[in-house]
Amino acid sequence: MVIKLKSRKGTQILKRYIPFLLVFIFLLTSCSNNNKQSNEQEEEITQPQPNIYGLYVDSLTQQKGIVGKNETLTDILIPHHVTYKQIREIAIIARDKWNVRKIRRGKEYVIYSSNDSIPSVKYFVYESDPINYVVVEFGDSISVTKGRKKIKIKENKTAGEINTSLYITLKEQKVSDLLALKLAEVFAWQIDFYRIYKGDKFKVIFEEEYVDGKFIGIGKIISAYFQHRGDDYYAFYLEQDGKDEYFDEEGKSLQKTFLKSPLKFSRVSSGFTRRRYHPVLHRYKAHLGTDYAAPTGTPIYSVGDGVVTEARYKRNNGNYVKIRHNSTYTTQYLHMSKIAKGIRPGVKVKQKQVIGYVGSTGLATGPHVCFRFWKNGAQINHRKQKFPSSHPVSKNNIDRYLTYMDSLKSIIDSMQISNVSTGMTQVTANQ
Q: Is 0.90 surpassed by the pTM of this model?
């Protein structure tokens, strides 16, 4: 629009009011933008968010439950107006992902239903463990998907001196005793955890796993130090060639050819000796093995990779398994309550694979495993042997590893032995 001014007086009046007009236009524009931003923020705030299972369930009712004794999927869903036909369909659709017949007592589940006068189930969620779950969605058709909750990783550290046991020391420091199992796995080739001594010391930097704010377990050990019988042992985590491994200060692998023992935790009830009074035969004879006492049913592990040569019952040996690891070494495990499924002559086994369970079959007075070790055809005391590392840090990774190791070792060395664990604040997320 063009404005024509007819006089000088009109021009002066217009000039006088132009600043006020500009301020008014600015205020109108500013208010409009503020309203627009406010509306956008309101939209962002009110936008629905997925729950821990990735589901949008704001408009649905939620019912949590725990699987009872002998309770089946049918028992759970029928009261919620799910038909037998739908349950059969779930079983068919889910068979490659989830066996509906194997829901377990004590496991948690959640049912999300509509708010109608006759509620209909929209989602059924079954938690197979604290992390993994299965979602059954009831829509135009039934679908079954598997999922994992987001795990939050908190880095922590602790140090202590053992007075009674590693478990008790960790408990006193309010650290999960699951850390003891992790340490036993890391140092399985260096330390005999059946013979932990009073005064042994440890320092460890490790991960704790949380789901929805709830502690669910110990993650990986990042770095650890263990002083056992005056000897110092270090462990540093490194992912190499897609594998999680532990190495020492020089980059040598902590994994040896053999485990120290075929059991994780127990006690030595009888050692290797050329003359022992036999508790059943009541006479002195050689005991060319090591007895590890443990409760009946405790898993027995192969101490190394190999091939099963014998897996059967003998009068004195009871149920036993014998494994040839290579042309030099052979091991044997006696008095099992039972031999593990699939373990038979000719079968290849891996280190830490369960081959049987502690028992007292054969010539035994109580539950234990008699572990025997042959080198070049002669029985020897395996606890006095020193085996070489399996492989070191690769040449491509060694410089990076040594720099990384130095930084962790300085932290470990600076940690003070105390009765109270101290936490680090770094938190990361892992899918």
A: no
